[in-house]
Amino acid sequence: MNLNNLVKNNKKKIRVGRGIGSGRGKTSSRGHKGQKSRSGVAIKSFEGGQMPLYRRLPKRGFKSLNSKDLAILNLSKIQSIYENKKKELKNSLDLKYLKEKKLINKKYSKLKILGAGEIKIKLDITAHFASKQAQEKIVKAGGKLNIVKK
Question: Between the CA of residue 130 and those of 13, 16, 61, 125, what are the distances in Å?
Answer without folding.
Answer: 71, 72, 28, 10
